[in-house]
Amino acid sequence: MRLNPAASPHPAAPPQPPRPWPRPPACLPAGWLDRPPANARVSVAGIVILRQRPGTAKGVIFLTLEDETGIVNVIIWRKIYEQFRRAVIAGRLLRITGPIQRGDGVTHVIAEQVEDISPMLDLLLAEQGRSGDPAFAPSPEMG
């Protein structure tokens, strides 16, 4: 018996994340960060909404990323910051890879790799990215 790959997923399968905008390959949506076990290595991506470098943190940088499902807290240790400095400072859209850390009801991703994927933001405005997407439909007021 050959399975049809185009068939709908099994009813007990977890729901698939929404894909209304160009998502980096193999990234876990923020809303799914509760699913992997602690210390699992994951990749997350999102728009940088906060960069913090407290003076008392001894070179640690805290980032907050946001995607369409929620926010991701990221910890970047000094050694990783020095390796990926340009991306950490200038990136508007980042992909972070590292283990999940949980404690006191808060989930963080500890950065091992930081990739600036800001050019993907241009895909949101590209004509091919808009076709058939109701998010880009003109409002009735605009005619």
Write the layout of secondary structure elements.
Elements: E1 41-52, E2 61-67, E3 70-76, H1 78-83, H2 85-90, E4 93-103, E5 106-110, E6 113-116, H3 121-125, H4 127-130
Parallel strand pairs: 3-5
Antiparallel strand pairs: 1-2, 1-4, 2-3, 4-5, 4-6
Instruction: Give me the secondary-structure category.
Output: alpha+beta
Helix content: 10-25%
- Low-confidence parts, pLDDT < 50 over ≥5 residues? 1-8
Number of helices: 4
The major sheet is characterized as: 5 strands, mixed, barrel
Give me the strand/helix succession: EEEHHEEEHH
Lateral strand order in the biggest sheet: 1-2-3-5-4
Overall pLDDT level: 80
Distance between the termini: 53 Å
- Portion in strands: 25-35%
The radius of gyration over CA amounts to 18 Å
Number of strands: 6
Global shape? globular
Question: What's this, in brief?
Answer:
The chain is an alpha+beta fold. 15% of the residues lie in helices and 32% in strands.
Provide an overview of this structure:
The model is unreliable at 1-8 (pLDDT under 50). This protein has 143 residues and is of the alpha+beta class. It has a five-stranded mixed β-barrel with strand order 1-2-3-5-4. A hairpin with a 2-residue loop joins strand 4 (93-103) and strand 5 (106-110). It is 15% helix and 32% strand. It has helices at residues 78-83, 85-90, 121-125, 127-130, and strands at 41-52, 61-67, 70-76, 93-103, 106-110, 113-116.
Q: Which terms summarize this structure?
A:
143 residues; alpha+beta; five-stranded mixed β-barrel; 15% helix
